[in-house]
Amino acid sequence: xxxxxxxxxxxRRITKFDSDFLMSPIIQTAQGAHIGCMYxxxxxxxxxxxxxxxxxxxxxxxxxxxxxxxxxxxxVEAGDAVFWQKDEWHETKTTNGLTGIVIESEDMKPSFLxxxxxxxxxxxx
Length: 125
Prior knowledge:
By secondary structure, the chain is mainly beta. The protein has one helix and eleven strands, in the order ββββββββββαβ.
């Protein structure tokens, strides 16, 4: 399990074509990708299971806790990204609700674009 940030502070200002916005790079894939938005309501759970492919969970609203193969939970909140390798066991849960984007693809390396974005995990145990 790897942790990253994609919040505004990690963004780069884009001014090309008279633009003015911040872009926080997340992922680039050479193969197809499955992308979905997950809505966990209060006391929601994505049960403990193995990742069917490399996947990254981008927390866009709310907060919760994640764990990998160890039984240690880490707090996640908006702007956090969690990456799991294929076959890695993991779980996500929330008390108050959480919205996230999940990207699954066989060819993903978040450290390629989010270098330097690694954050220190906030243990819940």
